């Protein structure tokens, strides 16, 4: 008898939840649209609507499992990528953060208080209401006009619709004046007031915790979008090529606004000699850094893996554990430890070199030594990974091959070059390509160890001799003067293309390896 109500409840519960979710989605989309975010509203509507269709209708079960992954790729991979590419075609920077309308509004909202018409005031409470007492500004002869007061005001509610007419205080007795804490508490109500002095055309507005005054705008908008500076009469017109309001003499008025500049950031990387020099050097060092790291780590890791497979070696498990430790320790800790070891004055490495050879290399000041130090540290961090890979691949080689080689009288080097290396090279190659791509963007090592220093001299944008492309991009975008987000986005797009090409090469090599098996 109880199954019918339960079945009826289940039949109505699903549509009710779907309806509530649809209403919540529409409310959120409307809020984004009202906040002047049309693209975000359209994106949320498309994504949320698709989710409602997938989970609210009788679609394929497979899509119910695939949708979260597809949505995650679109939100966290595709959207940031498209947004970064789009920024690369603009002048977006710390000097050009706003759009044109917001930049114009910001300037139009600038104002100044006319000190000649500034009235000091006190706020007096009378029950739940308040009254302001204003003192006129001091005249040239040191005298002041009579004090003025407002009628009783309810500052906690909405501000009066029009100006509040001031009257002479006369014999009116006022309650105690509120202290600074009381003024701050009633600041929202005070800011909404307009006070009208008899015989003065302009109303008084809130100008701080101590005075009301006549507030004069600094700019006047023109019909063509230009702005006239009232104090000087200079006209600033918007320049949609540079993203600034500029006068006829070329003077720029911040803040600038964001505009599209086409391929200017990309052509700057290629055609600007002052920028191209450090950029090319950093690009070459990035490729060498990633390539040499993979080469040294592979040589060391493969050698240790072969040695650890020697059956007559005692305590192999202990050696393997000790050699694996650099991979077990968090990388940032190892990097900071090495930064202390390589310290020119107090580091243990220089202390040993000084004791043996009488030298104290400037690891962080000399560009060549700094690069050598980076390669040493990164090889230390990377060889355990290669050693583990090679150990697993070596164990997969049939032992019959080594037995036949021993019968033929071959030595360890012959076994390595004729058996071990050829058989592990193919499956190891895609992994080495991925290691190259990882080191191509190894921001943590450069940032913690050298921070890109020592810097190049006489460059338009700060650039370090040990910077790789990703750390150079970070410095352009966030740390050094200018904060040129558009240029950083263009470089990031270039890095993405390079890494994507390496990923495609890796996939091709992997497919060929699998087809040959």
TrEMBL record:
A matching Pfam family: BPD_transp_1
Q: Tell me the membrane topology, using the record's own terms.
A: Multi-pass membrane protein
TM helices/strands, residue ranges: 12-33, 39-58, 65-85, 282-305, 317-338, 372-394, 428-449, 485-507
Protein name stated in the entry: Maltose/maltodextrin transport system permease protein
Organism of derivation: Rubrivivax rivuli
What keywords would UniProt list here? Cell inner membrane, Cell membrane, Membrane, Sugar transport, Transmembrane, Transmembrane helix, Transport
Q: Which NCBIfam families match?
A: PRK10999.1 (NF008232)
Q: Which InterPro entries match?
A: MalF_N, MalF_P2, MalF_P2_sf, MetI-like, MetI-like_sf
Gene name for this UniProt entry: malF
Kindly give the PROSITE patterns that the UniProt entry links to this protein.
ABC_TM1
Protein family: Belongs to the binding-protein-dependent transport system permease family. MalFG subfamily.
Instruction: Describe the task this protein carries out.
Output: Part of the ABC transporter complex MalEFGK involved in maltose/maltodextrin import. Probably responsible for the translocation of the substrate across the membrane.
Annotated signal peptide:
none
Which Gene Ontology terms describe the biological processes this protein takes part in? Answer: maltodextrin transmembrane transport
Residues in domain ABC transmembrane type-1?
283-506
Q: State the organism's lineage.
A: Bacteria, Pseudomonadati, Pseudomonadota, Betaproteobacteria, Burkholderiales
Q: Which domain of life is it from?
A: Bacteria
Assembly, in brief, is: The complex is composed of two ATP-binding proteins (MalK), two transmembrane proteins (MalG and MalF) and a solute-binding protein (MalE).
């Amino acid at each position: 008898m109880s199954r019918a109500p339960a079945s009826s409840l289940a039949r109505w519960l699903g549509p009710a939840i779907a309806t509530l979710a649809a209403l919540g989605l529409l409310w959120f989309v409307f809020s984004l649209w009202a906040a002047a975010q049309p693209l975000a509203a359209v994106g949320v509507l498309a994504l949320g609507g698709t989710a409602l269709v997938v989970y609210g209708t009788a679609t394929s079960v497979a899509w119910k499992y695939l949708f979260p992954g597809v949505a995650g790729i679109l939100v966290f991979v595709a959207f940031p990528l498209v947004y970064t590419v789009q920024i690369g075609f603009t002048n977006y920077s710390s000097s050009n953060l706003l759009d044109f309308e917001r930049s114009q509004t910001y300037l139009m909202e600038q104002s100044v208080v006319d000190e000649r018409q500034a009235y000091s005031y006190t706020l007096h409470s009378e029950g739940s209401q308040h009254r302001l007492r204003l003192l006129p500004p001091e005249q040239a002869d040191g005298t002041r006009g009579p004090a003025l007061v407002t009628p009783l005001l309810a500052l906690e509610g909405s501000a009066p619709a029009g100006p509040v007419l001031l009257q002479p205080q006369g014999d009116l007795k006022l309650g105690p004046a509120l202290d600074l804490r009381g003024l701050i508490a009633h600041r929202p109500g005070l800011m909404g007031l307009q006070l009208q002095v008899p015989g003065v055309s302009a109303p008084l507005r809130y100008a701080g915790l101590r005075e009301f005054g006549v507030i004069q705008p600094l700019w006047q908008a023109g019909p063509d979008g230009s702005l006239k500076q009232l104090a000087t009469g200079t006209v600033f017109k918007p320049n949609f090529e540079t993203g600034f309001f500029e006068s006829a003499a070329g003077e720029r008025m911040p803040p600038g606004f964001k505009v599209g500049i086409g391929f200017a950031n990309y052509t700057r990387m290629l055609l600007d000699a002052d920028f191209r020099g450090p950029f090319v050097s950093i690009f070459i060092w990035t490729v060498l850094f990633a390539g040499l790291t993979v080469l040294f780590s592979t040589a060391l890791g493969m050698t240790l893996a072969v040695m650890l497979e020697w059956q007559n070696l005692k305590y192999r498990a202990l050696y393997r554990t000790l050699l694996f430790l650099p991979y077990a320790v968090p990388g940032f800790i190892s990097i900071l430890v090495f930064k202390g070891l390589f310290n020119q004055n107090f580091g243990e490495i220089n202390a040993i070199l000084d004791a043996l050879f009488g030298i104290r290399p400037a690891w962080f000041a000399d560009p060549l030594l700094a690069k050598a130090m980076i390669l040493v540290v990164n090889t230390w961090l990377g060889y355990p990974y290669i050693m583990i890979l090679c150990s697993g691949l070596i164990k997969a080689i049939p032992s019959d091959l080594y037995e036949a080689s021993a019968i033929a009288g071959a030595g360890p080097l012959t076994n390595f070059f004729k058996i071990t290396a050829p058989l592990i090279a193919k499956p190891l190659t895609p992994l080495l390509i991925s290691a190259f791509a990882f080191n191509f963007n190894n921001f943590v090592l450069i940032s913690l160890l050298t921070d890109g220093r020592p810097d190049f001299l006489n460059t338009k944008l700060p650039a370090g001799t040990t910077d790789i492309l990703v750390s150079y991009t970070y410095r352009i975008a966030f740390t050094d003067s200018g904060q040129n987000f558009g240029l950083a986005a263009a470089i990031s797009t270039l890095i993405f293309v390079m890494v994507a090409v390496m990923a495609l090469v890796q996939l091709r090599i992997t497919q060929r390896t699998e087809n040959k098996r």
